Predict the 3D structure of the following.
Amino acid sequence: MLDLLKKTIYTTIGIAVLTREKAEEVGRKIVKETGMTEAEGKQFIEELLKKSDEMRASVEKIVNEKVEIALKKLNIPTQKDYLDLECRIRKLEENSSKQDLR
């Protein structure tokens, strides 16, 4: 029963967007309302915080991937592209100045 309650809570409260403090606050409230023992409550809050961190990381990864795909579709140069081009220009300028000295 407790596992079902936990799964429902994780889904319902949108754990990925909770701050750590808010997740702890929600966890303490649920512990109090359900009458969990101190040990159960502590374990529940730790699991809630762990899930929150995992979900946040997962959402961040997905968002980063989607942004990268969108940038590629828009054909916007990446920082690496810019740095590569800058390096090529520097080499051309160096070669050009060497030729001017001849």
